[in-house]
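Handout, page 2. Input:
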Amino acid sequence: MGTNGSTMLEPLRQGLPPVDPTAVSGSASCSLPARFEAVRGARSFTRSTLSQWGLDDRFDDVALVVSELVTNALRHALPGDSRSAAAGSGELEAAVRLHLMRWSSRLVCAVRDPSEDRPGGSFEPERTRENCDLESGRGLFLVDAYSDSWGWHPLAGRLTGKVVWALFMLHE
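Output:
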């Protein structure tokens, strides 16, 4: 766990909402193990990061979204046997990564995972209401309801996988 400057933003730039990466006022990132207990760690990391940024009042909404994005990454993006294999081997310990980025008026939570599949299968942001009753769409329905916008994009270059992000507007 730790903070990282603009190098962390590189794989996330493509597909993110229009924000100026040079104007980022804070960024933090942590690797998450390929185990469902990682959701608790992601929430704890989010709490401490938001507290450092003076955004404690946004914790409930942001933590809910982070929990859903991390859960989706663990449930759908990792091969079924990876979770049990990772517990002993450490091979996939950094398979999922959480990034938090803050600008003066925006906060972006992004979760990177090794799958290139669309989040929630055929689920798309514009079809949220149609999919809210599907098990794979419930988490993304919550992401849509609690964030100002969200989306995803495949990673480019030598990186494989995707990033699913959620944007929160900050009112100063």
